[in-house]
Specification:
heterotrimer, A alpha/beta, B alpha/beta, C alpha/beta, A: alpha/beta, 22% strand, B: alpha/beta, 14 helices, 8 strands, globular, 4Fe4S_Fe-S-bd (chain C), iron (chain C)
Chain lengths: 219, 245, 529
């Protein structure tokens, strides 16, 4: 297909749309109209901090994720326990992960842009997170230091994810407003381990993404 | 109160006993019933089948018959749904030919009530002093349930009937499969939906099934009769008209 | 591999005929009823815990309405921002053009893989998977390459897989349900859970046969594990992916895909090239709008508070994010009849749809027939309004009638599309197409409706019709054991009624006759009940 015929499809579609709903209005007018849209839903929650954290834990348990409540000093020790229970000797980590989270005695291999096949050799990955949403039990990861690229938290079967209590919000709207400034980064919302309900609507854990999710909730 | 009865075309022709029961209940409650003789049909069958042009002239006729009524009572939630949902839009289309009809419809519609709704919402009643010593299950027609949001109004009225053994219908929110011309155009699917409904009815072991719509009851009752189940269908007005005398 | 007869609304039989066959399929009905019962119960539970659900529906409806009203602005804004982020935006007027664009982009991507042998798709000695014959596509075309696909109803709508296969590109469906459909040479029957018409035993048989397995359990877990093993190697190998999109974010040029299994994330992040096909209706104004739609979509679609994975990405990533995801990213924006929908102001709300499938689960008609009876990848209530409109109302004219207008669809719609209202409006358009002059005279239904209309316009004619009806029906009446008169057989089209139902005979006295008699007697103590 030539460039000119591609242009003509674009023009054909847009001019048809314009012919029906009118010319595109200026950004200010459209922006004002958008700002006036009804938003009577709950943007924030009135629940206290403890209730919010307990809700997050409850939701994560509901998804069959393991949750550990730890102090900052306890992160490394908890990681060691999980890793040794799994019988692993090496764990994938993104660049920029806090050194204090890494216990001795385990090989932490930094993701250097491994190929898919190389990623597939890792059983576990350890990352931080941007925030978590209590209402839905959702962890949000972005391509930032300590969280890394999306593939690294996807191919290994076990995901250990560190969430700071201060990064836990109650509702989805609170989360989206915090994420607004970094909206263009690759972002993944993770709610429990990979799952499907495609067979007789029975929810089962673990299809292609990590089948095991361990959340370290840090005070 | 002076109540104008819009009987609807199919009740008039096929279910006059429901109309007689409405009159009995309203008169027992001390109201005066009028029956404007020029009334025919609300236009629902035409409108919902796509023959909207044929339905249009029925609106000015309805307005002419009922414009002065204090309250219009209709023993059919589907006809009331038709009026509330489509009369304002139809009036817009008619305004040029019938100046003022938009305003007239806007002023008339709030005075139009489905029969059970009139009792519970307009008159604020829960008990109309009826007696009906039978095991009964209530079918919430889609237009009553979703179109008019009747809620538990009809069931409250039934629950307060003396002697009644009211039993809940499983999957009460599910359509019986009537749907007007749907029952004929998609007869097989309609029958399949109906089979689920009659099974639910039979599971209640009720002697009769009631509703605010004789259209659903005609459909459900037709299958119950074909299967020789012995289960009867009665319009809710017939139960509320029951007395010990 | 995707044989079977593709769902094509232009050639599909009318709904009542297709539905009749489905109603006779006991296994299918059992599967569909079970699945829709389960999803509905889950949905009701998670919707019930949201005190602001109606406000979210109102907001979702307003956002969609605002978007569609400002479609030229938002489409151009999306294109600008996506392009600035390194994506390539293509426009396709119809299915053929979209297929051609996607096929060309896939071919280019595959050719790029060949010229860079170090990262070439298929190292020697690698298992051949379940290719239909080594190196050969389904219909004997030499295998030119492979793509992996995320479930996308838009690609089903344009029948993309056949186009890819015809040039020797094998598409691997990676969503579990779509894999079941593809391996079973079946067609999707639901927009969210396309294989809901199959039960575990049927799926096990398909997997055993197509994956060439010796043993396989029949628990959903066993079946999902088999799919994981079957597809893992494809995810690691194939360097080109094709996806749909849930939302295109105009403000950032980003794309959002909502999924559960992780197959979506595999397709979005591992391959070197990603081609995303999306309807022009998929755009939303701003990132913040996801705070509404990401609350209502999962709860409505699968009855979850949030589905396991949502991915949002913008172009090919800049700076630190470079290297996260594909190097080449294309968005193909497709019209394919959507502007036809837009042109009808009364039906335009159809384009507000976010494809959650809640209307399908709630629909008592869909419940009895499953999706295939609708002859289109868009089944159920939304399909009944979308499909005929996408085809300019020239095809699929039976679909607007495939509803009892019970309103369950409207009640559950997270963006408040008044589907019954649109159905009735479209019935009007169908009648318009099929009446007028000679068309009316040769159309029995139109003639009957016209006659009935004339009757209702006059009290006198109505009374006469009541009398005539009584007389006409008399020969068909039979008395039952209780002495009541019933009709058990009616002629012609009305026979649909008496196939399974009796019709109570018309009473000897209409209500108005009773009323007049009572008035004449002057006694309001008429017999009631």
């Amino acid at each position: 297909m030539t460039e000119s015929s591609a242009m003509s499809s674009r023009e054909a579609i847009l001019s048809r749309v314009r012919g029906i709903v009118g010319e595109a209005r200026d950004a200010d007018t459209v922006g004002l109209e958008w700002a006036a849209l009804p938003r009577a839903y709950n943007a924030a929650s009135a629940a206290d901090r403890d209730a919010v954290l307990l809700r997050l834990i409850d939701r994560l348990h509901d998804y069959d994720a393991q949750v550990y409540r730890v102090s900052p000093e306890e992160i490394a020790g908890t990681v060691r326990e999980i890793v040794s229970l799994l019988g692993l000797t090496e764990v994938l980590v993104p660049a920029g992960l806090a050194q204090g989270w890494l216990p001795d005695g385990v090989a932490f291999v930094k993701d250097e842009g491994f190929s898919p096949r190389e990623l597939d050799r890792f059983t576990a990955v350890l990352t931080g997170s941007t925030l978590a949403i209590a209402e839905t039990g959702t962890l949000v990861l972005q391509n930032l230091p300590g969280q890394g690229r999306r593939a690294a938290t996807l191919v290994p079967d076990v995901h250990l994810c560190v969430v700071r209590e201060q990064d836990v919000v109650a509702t989805v709207p609170e989360a989206m407003r915090r994420l607004q400034a970094t909206a263009e980064l690759p972002t993944t919302f993770i709610s429990g381990p990979s799952a499907t309900a495609d067979i007789e609507m029975t929810r089962i854990k673990g299809v292609h993404g990590p089948r095991f999710l361990h959340v370290l909730l840090v005070r | 109160m002076k109540v104008a009865l819009f009987i609807t075309c199919y009740n008039d022709t096929l279910f006059p006993e429901a109309g007689r029961a409405v009159v009995a209940v309203l008169e027992r409650l001390g109201h005066t019933v009028e029956f404007p003789a020029g009334q025919t049909c609300c236009g629902q069958m035409h409108y919902n089948t796509g023959y909207q042009a044929e339905a249009l002239p029925l609106l000015p006729r309805f307005v002419a018959q009922f414009r002065h009524a204090e309250a219009v009572v209709v023993p059919s939630s589907s006809c009331v749904t038709m009026m509330r949902e489509h009369y304002p839009g139809m009036a817009q289309r008619l305004e040029k030919e019938h100046p003022g009809i938009v305003d007239e419809v806007a002023s008339l519609l709030p005075r139009v009530w489905e029969f059970s709704e009139f009792l519970t919402k307009k008159l604020g009643l829960k008990d109309v002093g009826a007696y009906y010593p039978h095991r009964v299950t209530y079918h919430a027609s889609c237009h009553g349930l979703r179109g008019l949001a009747l809620g538990d109004g009809p069931e409250t009225l039934l629950a307060n009937v003396r002697g009644i053994d009211l039993v809940k219908l499983d999957k009460v929110e599910q359509c019986c499969g009537f749907g007007g011309t749907f029952a004929v155009k998609n007869a097989e699917v309609s029958s399949a939906m109906l089979a689920e409904k009659t099974t639910a009815v039979l599971n209640t072991r009720a002697e009769c099934v009631t509703a605010c719509d004789n259209s659903c009851l005609m459909h459900i009752g037709g299958a119950l009769h074909r299967q020789r189940t012995g289960v009867q269908t009665v319009h809710i007005a017939e139960i509320l008209a029951g007395d010990e005398a | 591999m995707s044989g079977g007869t593709a769902l094509n609304p232009k050639t599909a039989p009318p709904f009542p005929i297709a539905a009749t066959a489905m109603v006779g399929n006991t296994q299918l009905r059992k599967n569909v009823r079970h699945a829709t019962d389960v999803i509905q119960a889950k949905r009701a539970r998670v919707v019930g815990e949201m005190p602001d659900w109606q406000a979210l529906r109102d907001a979702g409806s307003a956002v969609r309405e605002h978007t569609i009203r400002n479609l030229p602005f938002y489409l151009e804004q999306f294109e600008r921002n996506c392009t600035a982020a390194g994506g390539h935006v293509h426009w396709a007027r119809d299915a053929a053009e979209a297929r051609a664009i996607v096929v060309r982009l896939a071919q280019e991507a595959i050719a790029r893989g060949r010229t860079a042998p170090s990262i070439a798709g298929r190292p020697a000695g690698e298992p051949q998977g379940t290719h239909p014959g080594a190196g050969e596509a389904a219909d004997g075309v030499a295998l030119q390459g492979e793509v992996i696909k995320i479930k996308s109803m838009t690609t089903e709508e344009i029948q993309l897989n056949r186009a890819l296969e015809s040039v020797g590109i094998h598409p691997y469906e990676t969503d579990l349900a779509e894999l079941i459909i593809q391996l079973g040479q079946d067609q999707p029957s639901h927009i969210v859970v396309p294989a809901l018409h199959k039960n575990r035993q049927q799926i096990r048989e398909i997997f055993l046969r197509e994956m060439k397995l010796e043993h396989l359990g029949e628990s959903p877990q066993d079946l999902a594990d088999a799919a994981r093993r079957f597809l893992r190697e494809k995810f690691l190998r194939v360097e080109t992916a094709i996806s749909g999109a849930n939302f295109l974010i105009a403000e950032t040029g980003g794309v959002c895909v909502v999924e559960s299994e992780g197959n979506g994330r595999m397709c979005l992040t591992l391959p070197k090239t990603l081609i995303t096909l999306a309807g022009i209706d998929k755009v939303v104004p701003r990132f913040q709008d996801l705070e509404v739609l990401l609350q209502t979509l999962p709860r409505s679609a699968t009855g979850e508070r949030m589905n396991p994975y949502n991915s949002v990405w913008t172009g090919v990533g800049k700076g630190y994010a470079a290297g996260d995801g594909p190097e080449h990213f294309h968005v193909v924006l497709i019209d394919n009849g959507r502007t036809e929908v837009l042109a009808d102001a009364e039906a335009r709300q159809t384009l507000h749809c976010i494809r959650c499938g809640a209307c399908q689960n709630a629909c008592p008609v869909y419940r009895e027939t499953g999706g295939h009876a609708y002859g289109s990848v868009y089944a159920g209530p939304i399909g009944a309004i979308l499909t005929p409109q996408l085809l300019g109302m020239h095809y699929a004219q039976s679909l607007p009638y495939a509803s009892s207008l019970c309103g369950a669809c409207y009640e559950v719609c997270p963006v408040k599309i008044n589907i019954p209202e649109v159905l009735v409006h479209l019935r009007g358009r169908v009648v318009e197409e099929n009446t007028g002059g000679l068309k009316t005279i040769t159309n029995p239904e139109a003639m009957a409706m016209k006659a009935a209309g004339a009757i209702f316009r006059s009290e006198g004619r109505f009374r006469a019709a009541q009398r005539l009806g009584r007389m006409g029906e008399t020969p068909l009446e039979r008395r039952d054991g209780q002495g009541q008169k019933w009709v058990s057989w009616l002629p012609g089209m009305l026979g649909g009624w008496t196939n399974v139902r009796d019709l109570r005979a018309m009473p000897q006295q209409t209500f108005r006759e009773w009323w007049e008699e009572r008035e004449r007697k002057g006694a309001p103590a008429g017999e009631a009940g």
